[in-house]
C-alpha cells in the first residue's frame, strides 16, 4: 500500500507522494518511475475529464435538440413551414389554454377596514379603451393595497354615452369575483366622506407607469389624503409587470368583467341567429375613414378641431391606414374564404354608409349586422353607443373567425381574449406589406395575387406561435396567461383517439375550474367595447 500513488493537486500540478516521501533511488529507472507513473495517470485523468465534458455537453445538446424536435413534431410551429393554413381554425390551438389561477404565494386582499385608502378611477375613451383601464385599475389597487371604488366611465369623449358601469357590467359579479384579490366597493362610505377635511385628491399618472412609480409617487398621497382619484386612466400601467399581477390583469379582464343580462341576452340571440344560418361564420370589425379632403373636413366638424395634413395615398401605401371594406373582402377571398361564407359586420357608422359596404357585399352576399338581425330588440340600446359596442363584441367573441381592418382597441382586446379562450382564429391585416400589394393588384392575375396575400399574412392569422413574451400590448398578447398543454397529455390524447376538444380534459387545464368555484354561475362570457379611433395612440 505504501507504494500506491496518492495524488494531490498543488498549483494545478499532479504530484506523487512517492516522489515527496519515498526513498531516494540511484538508478535512472527508479528515478523515472515516480515521474512517469504520475504523468501517465494525470494524462488519463485529463482525458477522462475532457471526455466527460464532451459527452456531458453532447448529452445536453441532444436533450435540447430532442425537445425541440419533439415540440416541432407535436406542434409543427417551425417558422420555415410553408404548408397551407386552415383558414377556419388553428391546428395547434388545442395544445394551449388560458391559465390565470392565483398562485399559492399570492396573498388574499386586505379587508376594507385596514387598507391604505380608497382609490377612485375615471376611465377614458371608448368602451374598449376603458376596459383596459378598468383591468389595470384592479392591479393598481392591489399594488397600493387600496380599496377600489367601482370605476367611473367616460361621459365626455366623442362617443357621448351617459352609461355608467352598472349599465354595462354586472357589478355584483365584479365585486364578488375579485374579492380575494382586491376589495371593491360601489362608493366611498358617506360617513367617511363627511369626515374628510379636504375633497379627494385628483392626479393623472404618466402612461405605462411601472409599479415602482405607484409605490413611490402615488402611495404617499393616498396614505395622506385617504381618498385619491386617478383621471384619464387608460394604459397607465406598464406592460411588463410581475407574473402574479399579470394573471390578475387576466382575471379582471377575462372573468370579472361580465355584461349585464339584457346586453348579454341580446348578444347571444344574435349569435344564435347566425348559427341557424351557417354552422360557422366570420365577424368582421370595420373602422374606416376615407382620408380625403372631404373626410378630413367632416372629421374636424364632428370630432377633432385640428387634423394634420397628410398624403392619404402615401400613408396607405406605407400601411398606415385601415383597409377599405373592399380590400378586406379581397384579402379574405385570397386567403380562401368562399363567397357563400356568412359574415357579421361589427362597426359603428362607417363613413360612406351602405355605398362603402357595397363592394364587400358583392364579394360576400351573406352579410349581416346587428341592425338587420336584432330588429325591434335593438331599440332600447340605440341611444347608447357603449351598449351597441358590447353587442358587437359578444358576437365577434363567439364567431369562428374574427377579422379586423385596423389595430384599434376593440381589435386588440378581442384578439387577446380569443387567444386566452383557445386561440380562436383571429385575422388582422399585415398592412405594411398588404397595402402596397392591394394597390398593385391590377398588375397581376388572381392566382398570383392570392398566393402573395397568403404569404404576407403568415404571422397575422392568430396562430399560437405569434404569442411571444413582451410582444405588443399585454391586453393583445396575454403571454403570462397562456399555458401549453404537457406533451405527455397530448400524446395520451392522440393514443386515445382524442379530437380537438380533448385539451379541455387536461390536468393542467382544470386549473381554470378554480376560477369558477367562486360562484355556482357558469363562466362569464365577455362582452364588447367601442373601439378607440385608429388614428389615436
UniProtKB/TrEMBL annotation:
It comes from the Eukaryota. The chain crosses the membrane at residues 35-54. Pfam families: O-FucT. One of its GO terms (molecular function) is glycosyltransferase activity. Signal peptide: none annotated. GO terms for biological process: fucose metabolic process. Residues 492-537 are annotated as: Disordered. Keywords: Carbohydrate metabolism, Fucose metabolism, Glycosyltransferase, Membrane, Transferase, Transmembrane, Transmembrane helix. Residues 500-521 have a biased composition (Basic and acidic residues). Belongs to the glycosyltransferase GT106 family. This is O-fucosyltransferase family protein. It comes from Gossypium darwinii.
Amino acid at each position: 500500500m505504501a507504494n500506491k500513488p496518492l495524488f494531490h493537486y498543488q498549483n494545478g500540478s499532479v504530484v506523487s507522494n512517492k516522489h515527496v516521501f519515498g526513498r531516494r533511488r540511484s538508478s535512472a529507472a527508479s528515478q523515472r518511475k515516480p515521474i512517469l507513473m504520475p504523468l501517465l495517470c494525470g494524462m488519463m485523468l485529463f482525458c477522462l475529464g475532457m471526455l466527460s465534458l464532451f459527452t456531458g455537453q453532447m448529452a445536453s445538446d441532444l436533450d435540447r435538440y430532442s425537445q425541440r424536435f419533439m415540440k416541432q413534431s407535436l406542434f409543427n410551429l417551425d417558422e420555415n413551414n410553408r404548408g397551407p393554413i386552415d383558414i377556419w381554425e388553428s391546428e395547434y390551438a388545442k395544445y394551449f389554454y388560458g391559465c390565470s389561477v392565483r398562485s399559492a404565494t399570492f396573498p388574499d386582499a386586505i379587508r376594507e377596514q385596514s387598507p391604505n385608502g380608497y382609490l377612485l378611477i375615471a376611465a377614458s375613451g371608448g368602451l374598449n379603451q376603458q376596459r383596459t383601464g378598468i383591468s389595470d385599475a384592479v392591479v393598481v389597487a392591489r399594488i397600493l393595497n387600496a380599496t377600489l371604488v367601482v370605476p367611473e366611465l367616460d361621459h365626455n369623449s366623442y362617443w357621448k354615452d351617459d352609461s355608467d358601469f352598472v349599465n354595462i357590467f354586472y357589478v355584483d359579479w365584479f365585486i364578488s369575483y375579485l374579492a380575494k384579490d382586491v376589495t371593491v366597493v360601489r362608493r366611498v362610505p358617506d360617513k367617511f366622506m363627511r369626515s374628510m377635511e379636504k375633497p379627494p385628491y385628483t392626479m393623472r399618472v404618466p402612461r405605462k407607469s411601472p409599479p415602482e412609480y405607484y409605490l413611490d409617487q402615488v402611495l404617499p398621497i393616498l396614505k395622506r389624503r385617504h381618498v385619491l382619484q386617478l383621471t384619464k386612466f387608460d394604459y397607465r400601467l406598464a406592460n411588463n409587470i410581475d407574473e402574479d399581477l399579470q394573471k390578475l390583469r387576466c382575471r379582471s379582464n377575462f372573468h370579472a368583467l361580465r355584461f349585464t343580462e339584457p346586453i348579454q341576452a341580446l348578444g347571444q340571440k344574435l349569435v344564435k341567429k347566425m348559427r341557424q344560418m351557417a354552422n360557422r361564420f366570420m365577424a368582421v370589425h370595420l373602422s374606416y375613414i376615407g382620408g380625403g379632403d372631404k373626410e378630413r373636413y367632416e372629421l374636424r366638424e364632428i370630432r377633432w378641431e385640428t387634423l394634420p395634413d397628410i398624403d392619404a395615398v402615401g400613408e396607405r401605401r406605407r400601411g398606415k391606414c385601415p383597409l377599405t371594406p373592399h380590400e378586406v373582402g379581397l384579402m379574405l377571398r385570397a386567403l380562401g374564404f368562399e363567397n357563400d361564407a356568412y359574415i357579421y359586420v361589427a362597426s359603428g357608422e362607417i363613413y360612406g354608409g351602405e355605398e362603402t359596404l357595397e363592394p364587400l357585399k358583392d364579394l360576400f352576399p351573406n352579410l349581416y349586422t346587428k341592425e338587420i338581425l336584432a330588429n325591434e330588440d335593438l331599440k332600447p340600446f340605440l341611444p347608447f353607443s357603449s351598449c351597441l359596442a358590447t353587442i358587437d363584441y359578444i358576437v365577434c367573441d363567439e364567431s369562428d373567425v374574427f377579422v379586423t381592418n385596423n389595430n384599434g382597441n376593440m381589435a386588440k382586446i378581442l384578439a387577446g381574449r380569443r387567444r386566452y379562450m383557445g386561440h380562436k382564429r383571429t385575422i388582422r391585416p399585415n398592412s405594411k406589406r398588404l397595402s402596397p400589394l392591394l394597390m398593385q393588384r391590377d398588375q397581376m392575375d388572381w392566382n398570383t395575387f392570392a398566393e402573395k396575400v397568403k404569404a404576407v399574412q403568415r404571422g397575422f392569422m392568430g396562430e399560437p406561435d405569434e404569442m411571444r413574451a413582451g410582444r405588443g400590448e399585454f391586453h393583445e398578447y396575454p403571454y403570462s396567461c397562456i399555458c401549453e398543454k404537457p406533451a405527455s397529455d397530448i400524446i395520451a390524447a392522440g393514443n386515445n383517439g382524442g379530437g380537438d376538444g380533448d385539451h379541455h380534459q387536461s390536468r393542467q387545464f382544470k386549473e381554470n375550474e378554480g376560477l369558477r368555484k367562486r360562484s355556482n354561475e357558469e363562466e362569464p362570457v365577455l362582452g364588447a367595447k367601442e373601439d378607440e379611433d385608429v388614428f389615436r395612440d
